[in-house]
Fold this protein.
Amino acid sequence: MADGTTRSSRWKTDRLQNGRGGTRAGDGDLRPSASDLRLPLPSRRRAMASCKSACFLSCDWGSSAFRLRLVRRSDCTVMDELRSGDGAAVLARRRTAAERRKAFEGVLADRVARLLRRHGLTAAEVPVAVSGMASSSIGWRELPYAGVPFRVDGRDAIAASVPFGTAGARGRALLVSGIRTGDEALRGEEAELLGFFSRPEWRGMADDCVVVLPGTHSKHAVVRRGAVTDFRTYMTGELFAVLSAHSMLRHSVEPEGRGAQGAKGSRAFEAGVACAKGRPLSEALFRVRTNGLFRRHEAGANAAFLSGVLIGAEAHDLAARGGRSPVVLCANARLQVPYAQAFEQAGIYPRLSVLGAAEADRLSVQGHGVLLDRLG
Amino acid sequence: MADGTTRSSRWKTDRLQNGRGGTRAGDGDLRPSASDLRLPLPSRRRAMASCKSACFLSCDWGSSAFRLRLVRRSDCTVMDELRSGDGAAVLARRRTAAERRKAFEGVLADRVARLLRRHGLTAAEVPVAVSGMASSSIGWRELPYAGVPFRVDGRDAIAASVPFGTAGARGRALLVSGIRTGDEALRGEEAELLGFFSRPEWRGMADDCVVVLPGTHSKHAVVRRGAVTDFRTYMTGELFAVLSAHSMLRHSVEPEGRGAQGAKGSRAFEAGVACAKGRPLSEALFRVRTNGLFRRHEAGANAAFLSGVLIGAEAHDLAARGGRSPVVLCANARLQVPYAQAFEQAGIYPRLSVLGAAEADRLSVQGHGVLLDRLG
């Protein structure tokens, strides 16, 4: 087993070792994770010596967050990073299409220049790959979705080379489109999927598996004979946020409150997963309310119950529809434990692999590497 | 078949005849329905002549709305009505428990006096029944829930006689509690259930049926051998409101927009019901988003699709879990058509009865009559 990846039998210990990692774009947590923000200075200096010809920039442009990373091309090590709240939804607000395009280009040019200046480099020297909402209808330049089957070596990817910057500091970005099926769409996760299957130890699974990418809009990608053939989206993270803030359930849950973590939180989460089985969400959710009314859990633990209901619905559906295919969970440190717990409870455990959280955080960087090698 | 009630084979024509009716408390539509606000003046005068000894007041106190009706005791005809936005959640906001109790009493005393003054009556002369959130923990005086089995003749109801008003204008209100099971709770619908089974033509169904009361929190009451033995709550109406206003889906739906009504809306609703089958809501909801992205429906019709997903989840669950019991739908004019359509699509049609919308609107009044006869 390669470093940073764990098979199901070991996830419970490995998740602790892998518990640092950053956060996936779009999961609402925009705090920089200090531990992976920069390498220690001496190794950065060594890396920089060869960077001019051997680096690229990886940009993950979500709805609510912007993330740019300087990456060593040979092994996709992240050498430096910038994050900001300039997500696509933020930039698109109250702007005409022309103003919006200018705003996207301006933000990218500014951030690229700022990040590269730290290393004595310029935009002209370092290629940039951009995935996520920048290629959407509210983005920088709209690109059509690629279709399915979408081969996981990247040959079906749709991308455009777009110039940016001002005279004297011009660069080109490889803007990557998403994928769609008849009923579903994703943008950004295509890079993560390419990154996942670029790793030699996982390549063999491309014959038959389901890759789970939790987040605001959790994605389950069905992969057969080397291609993504279908995927499903669950609004798990967004439902948690919207219901906790705006529904009647806000009186019954405190996501950061007492009992949200630890044994109490874990038991409440387990009860939520059990409650979601064989019940439509609209009914299971009302149990969050009666838990509060009947003082069954503290508000913190009840937030864990709500999380269990939502992640449980996803897990039970995967169990019912996933057949016997292996399942790979690629989650950040915060989501890895609850998803693995729910998958275990739903009976997926025997065919489950869990990617280390730090490795999951690097998937889009690795995918950008694949795309730049192929198309850049 | 009694006037105002329709069996399944006729609902499609009857719903048009019954299409006026008011709105159920708590469904978010607080506009008075002019047609049932008052009887024409001459018949009101005739009714008033005998009212002093033969009237009662029926108060339905929801989370967001207050509704008080003057009712002829002999046949539960509504003779006059007052509505306001003084719901329990509104009154409870930023008040201590003592201030809250005072606020509830003040609102009731004021509205009772105002309504009775129109008819030359005083609070001392007319009994008042109050159901809904007034007996909850954020209400006037908290009453414990009644348990199940809860007999539909009202003998298991829990109520308290509470004085209100000032010297010279004092009255007493019969404050009614809700019902709970191990996991579920309701307040207000117990009066509707008592009202339903007080009607001779429906009494026979108390042996075995499921009564569906759609609304913000839709209730399905399981009735066996003359008693409510269980019930389930679906947050259908609230999810529609919260997701339309606060989630990413708000960009894809316009509840009052083009295509929301008529044949386009009906087809989109049907597609939503089909989409909800065998899919967790968190996944089906994302189709609302891709419908928008792929320009599959106008935003108005897409709101009908969202409604179809949510009501469809309820209908499919009822179909899967309701066994072979007869189902009675008691919905206001706005919800009757979509619920009947979804129930038909889910295969419940052969065992479905639909109560007329105007009759459904009177159920709590009739239930209050039962309770005053028994306990008042």
Notes: The longest strand of chain B covers residues 227-234. The first helix of chain B runs from residue 11 to 17.
